[in-house]
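Table S2 (continued). Query chain:
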Amino acid sequence: MITAIVLFAIGALFGLHVLTHILKTEPSPKASVILHGLFAAAALVILIVTIANGRAAGLTIASLVLFIIAALGGFIMFYMDMGKKRLPPKALAIIHPLLAAAGLVILIIYTFGR
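Corresponding output:
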């Protein structure tokens, strides 16, 4: 779980860099967009495998649900940014990290609070 937490945190740093550009209505830094997605996806895979192997409890599933919803928003933003070459809506750009941050907090509480 610690590896997933670290990867999510690194991904979040790249995501914050992207978010600042979106909120300023500036073109997103493509390298940060890609690195954000790669780190978050790797962490999500680790979390899914951990849960699938039965080494997790209810809070990790709640965390996973939040991360999956956040990821769906991330896919939409990625498609809009890279495919359609336009910035995603600011509301989505704000909701996406809030969901992911909630998922990360829950995962941290589960991992270090037991």
